[in-house]
């Protein structure tokens, strides 16, 4: 089924704000030649700076695009512009067949989708060799020995900090924190290293610093006593330390099929790694999809916020299951229908406390919050009907946009709560023909 894409959901697919801005400029018929929609494919030619126009195709069922331009971003500005054009000017599209190169690309996508859905491999295809359990066990034991050493050194480092007094922590050179983080990376505990690197930014807030050091101390203690943890609790501990998720093994586990609503996306940048979090909900169950891009490379195409999709998700082991991987591709896109009810501030905090009781290393979770009013300040706050408030994160531009959209009236937000700030990712607006609609909050990637 071809998805119904609005300008907001299309621009939410942009890999960065610059691509979104460029796409809006190109989304006018005068810049395109041979606009067509035929055979389940949007295609057209956009004149660039060179002699020959760029041939662009979009498979709306993805939605994914292919373009002859040299951009390494997916989707590129031409793919985004073509989708925006079709959303705004569908009558300008003809029905001519796409060039052979685009038809071959579309046929390849359909073939891969059929194989993923269970089409048997051709006769005589060589089976994928099974991994060697003994070799896996040796590699795992070797890594755990390294983690043992790294966390033991971290625990001594934390004790020294407390013994010297936290007031003296700001006098330490940055090399102290950087050296400790580098040792943890060498010990194959990158999750712990990431949190050690955060210590310098908390030196001006003693309460936040103490809480953060306590989190790291709990991580060390948890690893020391890991033999007493249940398998889901151990999975959460390993995830906090930065152990990679076995996605291949996870694909063999049972999944949860159904119609999932895409409620928000968040993109963060740390060093040379870009991370995108996509939040989905179905029948009160929250799922988190993670995508990564290293070395300045673009993120893969994501799911559009505000759409509901037919998909099968497989959840990673956890005492608070939310991390999931997509099995196959999402299909049957349509506008979001069943939206979650907003929580009061007290209800959100109670629900988050329950999750933390099961997984003390949980860094963030997503909730619908509302109705709330936005209160500008340093920082901004979201205030519910009882007068209880949560500090807001995100860019000032996103906060001002939400204030302008609300006009000062209450609204329901969907966003991430870290235990310190609530960052809106979208707002859930009431509609006339459907129960509501999801409007993404576009903002710059957070560092």
UniProtKB/TrEMBL annotation:
<feature type="compositionally biased region" description="Low complexity">
    <location>
        <begin position="117"/>
        <end position="127"/>
    </location>
</feature>
<keyword id="KW-0862">Zinc</keyword>
<feature type="region of interest" description="Disordered">
    <location>
        <begin position="109"/>
        <end position="142"/>
    </location>
</feature>
<feature type="domain" description="SWIM-type">
    <location>
        <begin position="54"/>
        <end position="87"/>
    </location>
</feature>
<keyword id="KW-0479">Metal-binding</keyword>
<keyword id="KW-0863">Zinc-finger</keyword>
<dbReference type="InterPro" id="IPR007527">
    <property type="entry name" value="Znf_SWIM"/>
</dbReference>
<dbReference type="Pfam" id="PF04434">
    <property type="entry name" value="SWIM"/>
</dbReference>
<protein>
    <recommendedName>
        <fullName>SWIM-type domain-containing protein</fullName>
    </recommendedName>
</protein>
């Amino acid at each position: 089924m071809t998805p119904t894409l609005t300008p907001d959901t299309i621009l939410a697919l942009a890999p960065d704000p610059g691509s979104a801005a460029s796409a809006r400029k190109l989304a006018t018929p005068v810049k395109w030649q041979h606009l067509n929609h035929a055979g389940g494919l949007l295609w057209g030619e956009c004149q660039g700076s060179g002699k020959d126009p760029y041939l662009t195709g979009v498979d709306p069922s993805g939605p994914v695009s292919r373009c002859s331009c040299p951009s390494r971003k997916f989707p590129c500005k031409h793919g985004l512009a073509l989708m925006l054009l079709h959303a705004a000017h569908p009558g300008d599209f003809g029905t001519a067949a796409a060039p052979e190169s685009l038809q071959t690309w579309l046929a390849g996508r359909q073939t891969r989708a059929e194989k993923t859905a269970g089409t048997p491999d051709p006769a005589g295809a060589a089976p994928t060799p099974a991994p060697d359990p003994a070799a896996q066990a040796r590699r795992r034991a070797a890594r755990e020995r390294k983690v043992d050493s790294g966390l033991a050194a971290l625990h001594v480092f934390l004790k020294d900090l407390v013994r010297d007094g936290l007031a003296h922590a700001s006098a330490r050179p940055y090399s102290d924190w950087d050296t400790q983080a580098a040792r943890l990376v060498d010990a194959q505990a990158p999750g712990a290293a990431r949190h050690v690197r955060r210590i310098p930014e908390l030196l001006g807030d003693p309460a936040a610093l103490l809480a953060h050091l306590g989190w790291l101390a709990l991580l060390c203690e948890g690893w020391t006593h890991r033999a007493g943890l249940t398998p889901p609790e151990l999975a959460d501990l390993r995830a906090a330390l930065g152990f990679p998720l076995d996605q291949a093994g996870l694909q063999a586990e049972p999944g949860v099929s159904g119609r999932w609503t895409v409620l928000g996306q968040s993109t963060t940048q740390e060093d040379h790694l870009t991370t995108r979090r996509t939040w989905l909900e179905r029948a009160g169950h929250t799922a988190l999809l993670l995508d990564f891009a290293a070395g300045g490379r673009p993120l893969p195409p994501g799911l559009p916020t505000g759409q509901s999709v037919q998909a099968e998700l497989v959840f990673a082991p956890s005492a608070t299951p939310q991390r999931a991987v997509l099995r196959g591709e999402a299909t049957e896109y349509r506008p979001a229908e069943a939206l979650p009810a907003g929580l009061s501030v007290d209800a959100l905090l109670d629900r988050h406390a329950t999750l933390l009781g099961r997984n003390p290393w949980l860094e963030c979770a997503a909730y619908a919050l509302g109705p709330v009013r936005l209160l500008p300040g340093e920082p901004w706050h979201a205030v519910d009907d009882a007068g209880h408030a949560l500090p807001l994160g995100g860019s000032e531009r996103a906060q001002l946009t939400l204030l302008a959209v609300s006009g000062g009236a209450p609204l329901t937000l969907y966003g991430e709560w870290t235990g310190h700030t609530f960052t809106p990712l979208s707002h859930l607006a009431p509609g006339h023909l459907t129960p509501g609609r999801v409007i993404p909050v576009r903002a710059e990637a957070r560092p």
